[in-house]
Backbone:
């Protein structure tokens, strides 16, 4: 500013809010007396570019995110998991996967209403997302009240304490419904490639059977996949 004799400032305004400034300066005096329209036109074009970039960013976000929870939607989750498993096969890496379901969710909807049910889903998703982000993984909404948590590069021994902590944190959740505090529970199935599941394409199915076993044996529990667990779950289905 010490060497500028003249300058012009044109604000970027969107929805009656200033979001930025175009600043130009020159050593000559009165350099911008007759150029205001020129710089206003530049500012207008920059604002259009910013708006387009913002719209594109939102569309990108919506393409991969679940509309209710903000975590990955099923399509992007399965694509990302496939990519991770391809890399795991190529580089001989371990991948652990947990699939969990909100227990008695229909009863939650029937008792408290669907809006409250949405709050339960969002709370479960945010708790899962915080867990995976802190441990190098990712998660997504697999179905209505089903969620998948993926931990690339981690075996069962490392992931089991993480899932136990997540499970306990879910138990501690409290949601307010009118004057009432409401809790919810989840059932979890946990498996791992290649420690337990030798075929990467079967990873989700194996986690699903383990979760089903949790559901059939009292809910609110974690079941680690095994051939025995899978066979028992299939017999009980």
Residues:
């Amino acid at each position: 500013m010490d060497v500028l004799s003249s300058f012009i400032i044109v604000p970027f305004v969107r929805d009656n809010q200033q979001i930025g400034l175009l600043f130009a300066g020159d050593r000559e005096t009165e350099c911008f007396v007759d150029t205001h329209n020129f710089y206003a036109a530049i500012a207008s074009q920059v604002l259009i570019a910013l708006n387009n970039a913002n719209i594109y960013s939102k569309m990108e976000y919506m393409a991969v995110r679940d509309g209710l929870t903000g975590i990955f939607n099923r399509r992007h989750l399965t694509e990302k998991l496939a990519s991770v498993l391809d890399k795991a096969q190529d580089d001989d890496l371990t991948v652990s996967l947990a699939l969990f379901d909100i227990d008695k969710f229909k009863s939650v909807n029937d008792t408290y209403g669907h809006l409250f049910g949405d709050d339960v889903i969002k709370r479960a998703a945010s708790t899962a997302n915080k867990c995976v982000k802190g441990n190098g993984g990712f998660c997504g909404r697999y179905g209505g009240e089903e969620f998948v948590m993926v931990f690339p590069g981690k075996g069962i021994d490392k992931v089991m304490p993480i899932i136990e902590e997540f499970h306990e944190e879910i138990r501690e959740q409290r949601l307010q419904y009118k004057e009432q505090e409401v809790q919810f529970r989840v059932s979890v199935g946990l498996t791992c490639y290649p420690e337990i599941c030798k075929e990467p394409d079967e990873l989700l199915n194996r986690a699903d059977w383990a979760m089903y076993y949790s559901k059939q044996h009292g809910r609110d529990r974690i079941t680690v996949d095994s051939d025995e667990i899978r066979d028992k779950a299939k017999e009980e289905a």
